[in-house]
Design goal:
By secondary structure, this protein is an alpha/beta fold. The protein contains ten helices and 15 strands. It has two domains: 10-65, Orthogonal Bundle (Arc Repressor Mutant, subunit A); 79-267, Rossmann fold (3-Layer(aba) Sandwich). 40% of the residues are buried.
Length: 268
């Protein structure tokens, strides 16, 4: 991590901690110490001060906002499950055909990956690595699928596990194929998201994977969120739905991918 935030005054550092928590919901003390290039003791003093003025709550190993802002832009889990459901089911069907027996695959915490877990259930003999409780629960009764649920801090809004410990859990794991979704995608900016800790979890899975399959429905093509997950060139295959009304800019985005040898599947 680039140390861009060193030499801040305590007041400015504490203000930035609040800004971070608006995006991450929870931050671990080692993460903040690294972010600001200060000692963990300094971070603890900042947190103590913020707690005294009723801004934050200390939790095991870290801190969260006293009253976290509701992220309207992310949407509730139930809403996201229903959003573009037909498109996600079509994408999942195509993605499932690309998974072979004995593969080690990674699924992120997206609802599209949840649909993929349903598409492979009782059909594959594989190992699934995920940071999503819904996916782990979905696959729990399939005796042929080994599920590795990554540890960390639980985001209740998405039932996903996040945090800087993700890299530690993944350090000794080699993944054949990662199936990752995102909030937004375009050729210039790649895969992007609105939630930093979700984006960092996706980055950790991608870093340990031999191949990256982007599972992105049509509504996300040629849009951009603020946190970059990865560049477009890092993607091996894009799987989206065969939307009949792609606009010119969306079609140009798909052409750019093809021209750079990125495979595209359009799911019916």
């Amino acid at each position: 991590m680039t140390k861009k935030h060193m030499h801040l005054s305590p007041k400015n550092r504490q203000s930035e901690i609040i800004d971070i928590l608006h995006s991450k919901e929870y931050a671990e003390i080692p993460y903040l110490a690294d972010y600001f290039n200060v000692s963990e003791m300094t971070v603890r003093r900042d947190i103590d001060q913020l707690e005294r003025i009723n801004k934050v709550t200390k939790v095991y190993g870290g801190v969260r906002l006293k009253e976290p802002k509701k992220k309207i832009i992310e949407g509730s889990l139930d809403f996201r499950k229903g959003s573009n459901r037909t498109a996600k089911e079509a994408i999942a069907k195509v993605a499932a055909d690309l998974i072979k027996d004995n593969d080690v695959v990674a699924f992120d915490a997206s609802t599209t990956a949840l649909e993929l877990s349903r598409a492979i259930k009782f059909k594959k003999k594989i190992t699934v690595i995920t940071n999503n409780l819904n996916i782990a629960y979905e696959l729990a009764d399939d005796p042929e699928i080994t599920v590795i649920l990554l540890g960390g801090f639980l985001r209740k809004s998405s039932l996903s596990v996040t945090g800087t410990m993700m890299d530690y859990y993944l350090d000794s794991i080699f993944i054949d194929k990662a199936f990752i979704s995102c909030k937004s995608f375009n050729y210039q900016d790649g895969m992007t998201d609105n939630i930093i800790d979700e984006g960092e979890a996706k980055q950790a899975l991608i870093a340990r994977s031999a191949k990256l399959y982007a599972i992105v429905d049509h509504s996300k093509i040629n849009t951009r969120a603020f946190f970059r997950i990865c560049d477009a060139k890092d993607i091996d295959t894009l799987i989206t739905d065969k939307y009949p009304s792609f606009d010119e800019e969306q079609l140009a985005c798909l052409d750019d991918l093809r021209n750079n040898n990125i495979q595209i599947f359009l799911a019916d």
